[in-house]
Amino acid sequence: SYVSAFMGIEAWRKNEALDSFDVLKKGELITVEGYFKPEEWTDSKSGEKRNRIVMVATKFYPTPEKEETPD
């Protein structure tokens, strides 16, 4: 079984061949290659400093099927 995790990912067309965007469909399991980028900003309402890490995708493609291994 798979465990889901949600993370911000930036995907810029200038980084990748345009046809790789065709594999992006809601619910599709994909493999993403890229790097992590820290972001920092100041919240405009509270004035608090905020930060997060996003992944910048440089390549993505359908995940190859693999056999489930028993636990």
Keywords:
single chain, mainly beta, 71 residues
From the alpha-carbon coordinates, what is the Rg to the nearest angstrom? 16 Å
Distance between the termini: 10 Å
- Note the run of SSEs as H and E: EEE
Give the neighbour order of strands across the main sheet.
Answer: 1-3-2
Structure, explained:
There is one protein chain. The chain is an all-beta fold. It has one domain. 0% of the residues lie in helices and 42% in strands. The protein has strands at residues 9-11, 30-42, 49-62. It has a three-stranded mixed beta sheet with strand order 1-3-2, with no helix packed on it. The chain is elongated, with a radius of gyration of 16 Å. The protein starts with 8 loop residues before the first strand and ends in a 9-residue tail after the last strand. The model has no long low-confidence stretch (mean pLDDT 80).
Compact overview of the structure:
With 71 residues, the protein is mainly beta.
Walk me through the topology.
Layout: E1 9-11, E2 30-42, E3 49-62
